[in-house]
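Anyone able to model this chain together with WQD?
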Amino acid sequence: MKILITGGCGYIGSHTAVELLNANYEVVIIDNFSNSKRDVLDKIKVITGKNFSFYEGDVCDKEILRQIFSENKIDGVIHFAGFKAVGESVSKPLMYYRNNLDSTLSLLEVMNEMNCKKLVFSSSATVYGDCHETRFVETIKKGTPSNPYGKTKTMIEDILEDLYHADPTWSITMLRYFNPVGSHSSGLIGDDPSGIPNNLMPYILRVAVGQLECLTIFGNDYDTPDGTCIRDYIHVVDLAQGHIKALEQLLNNEPKIRIYNLGSGQGVSVTEIVTTFEKVNNLKLNYKYGARRNGDLPAICADPTLALKELGWKTTKTLEDMCRDSYNFIIKNSQNKN
Ligand code: WQD
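re: yes, here you go
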């Protein structure tokens, strides 16, 4: 079976490429390196010992997509490509709507032309928006995301729902990620955002290696046990394996549209992440408590029951694994940077 991965050099895309190759799928990657690095291609080969096809290009470009489908018999597509920085999406909304929607529409149109109608879509817990739940089930009504990035995910989910209802020969699975962290145990691939990280773990890592001075914990006056926000962190390798399970289901069952939460179901506070990171890696982090960050919800956690029931998938890695693997990655890569 040959699978096209859009954005396959990115954080989650590259980890999924590794798991697909390990599961003996053939892989084709398209990436334009807008938020990833070319050397990830070699690292995927080193980790797996396997080769795969690569096309450098933009998923908005229907000509390169047509080239990929004419040169490869693609059995299914996993669509990761898209911009994903919440803060950047607020300051550059048009860039986010153009890129994330245009790339998805181009991909769907070419898949339709080529009669390849099996798609796994990289969605996000952000689509739950500001609904006043703390434990999210797939069937609850989507809320209103607080930023354009999250709104593009909601819009794409709506596009996919409408596409399926117009043409039920499509097989579509939408995976709603909670908070992906961690890295492959080799330390060769990981979350390596350019610039100042928005997300918690990449920021902690920069502080741990001295590239940033101090972590600010955004708010310790929330209505939570230790006053800091609670999130559902999931190891990126567990997340990648959730894609393999979703793909297997998609390829071996009747056409349908499905949605699954990919999370641990365990809520962890910011302070717990910090103290676990310090303990596991035997170091002291420089941090302080500061003001709340606009848009943050006090607690977000997955109900992962459906993914276990229908995909036979659940997380296996611990918070300690996430902290250890993340640090291993930055140590191996920040040395390369100096
Ligand atoms: C986690 C917690 C912060 C940085 C985002 C996206 C979501 C998804 C996951 C893609 C919050 C706190 C953070 C810092 C801090 N991405 N924090 N100091 O906001 O839960 O979700 O990433 O799908 O779409 O919204 O993740 O890592 O930014 O924040 O205290 O320097 O860490 O306040 O409570 P978030 P995050």
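The pocket of WQD is lined by residues 84, 86, 124, 126, 150, 177, 179, 198-200, 203, 215-218, 229, 231, 270, 293, 296 (CB under 6 Å).
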